[in-house]
């Protein structure tokens, strides 16, 4: 009988662990390998974690990178109850706020407290030592905004009903460094909406994104 694949936590202690990403280092509060979501083929994802949680040092906002079932990575940033967009659905955000992120916002939900930590969009308490997984901080209400990287101009590692050639034709895999940069950019935009203060992003962490619904040339 084949051995069942299980989530493997790479960081389960109260103290964050350092994780290199985008030519920088983050203090990861959540770090998981999720074998059933990790692409089977060799590729730029070989050494990537499948879930990374951290607190953005420029804005203090909770951030997550999470691999989806098709092998792509999605990014998420949380806001608290005092934020003007707390509780908004992604399609209800006024266009005048000009939130720009890869593919546009595709997610807006509260913490997924009832899902396994390895595949949930939710933060964990950094105030107490965690002796087991799936321990969530019940003291804070957070609302998460997110984006996907499985659009028609993105390389999707393991979708259904397509060949590797179809998946790679002129498309780019958005790796963890790319998604990290989009997360900190989203955090800065959400911070500006709440405080009116622009948060500068270092030039080495800035990047252009494909037009929404368009193609990369």
Pairing-aware structural class of the strands and helices? alpha+beta
Rounded to an integer, what's the Rg over CA atoms?
17 Å
Strand content: 15-25%
Count of helices?
2
**Terminal CA distance:** 48 Å
Shape verdict? globular
Low-confidence stretches: 126-139
Mean pLDDT comes to 84
- Count of domain modules: 1
Q: Helix amount, in percent?
A: 10-25%
Q: How do the helices and strands follow one another from N- to C-terminus?
A: EEEEEEEEHH
Most strands sheet:
8 strands, antiparallel
Number of strands: 8
Plain-language structure description:
The structure is a single chain. This protein is an alpha+beta fold. The chain has one domain (8-126, 137-205). Helix content is 12%, strand content 21%. It is built from two helices and eight strands. The protein has helices at 164-168, 176-195; strands at residues 8-11, 17-21, 24-33, 51-55, 62-67, 73-79, 107-110, 143-147. Strands 1, 2, 3, 4, 5, 6, 7 and 8 form an eight-stranded antiparallel β-sheet that branches. The radius of gyration is 17 Å and the shape is globular.
């Amino acid at each position: 009988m084949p051995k069942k694949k299980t989530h493997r936590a790479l960081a389960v202690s109260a103290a964050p662990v350092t994780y290199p990403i985008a030519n920088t280092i983050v203090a990861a509060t959540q770090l998981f390998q999720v074998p059933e979501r990790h692409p089977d083929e060799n590729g730029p994802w070989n050494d990537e974690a499948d879930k990374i949680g951290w607190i953005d040092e420029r804005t203090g906002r909770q951030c997550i990178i999470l691999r989806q079932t098709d092998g792509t990575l999605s990014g998420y940033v949380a806001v608290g109850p005092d934020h003007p967009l707390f509780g908004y659905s992604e399609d209800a955000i006024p266009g005048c706020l000009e939130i720009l992120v890869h593919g546009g916002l595709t997610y807006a939900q509260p913490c997924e407290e009832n899902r396994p930590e390895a595949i949930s969009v939710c933060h964990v308490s950094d105030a107490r030592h965690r002796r087991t997984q799936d321990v969530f901080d019940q003291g804070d209400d957070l609302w998460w905004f997110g984006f996907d990287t499985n659009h028609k101009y993105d390389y999707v590692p393991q979708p259904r009903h397509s060949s590797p050639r179809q998946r790679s034709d002129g498309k780019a895999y958005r790796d963890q460094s790319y998604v990290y940069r989009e997360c900190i950019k989203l955090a800065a935009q959400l911070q500006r909406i709440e405080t009116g203060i622009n948060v500068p992003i270092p030039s080495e962490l800035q990047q252009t994104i494909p037009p929404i619904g368009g193609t990369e040339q």
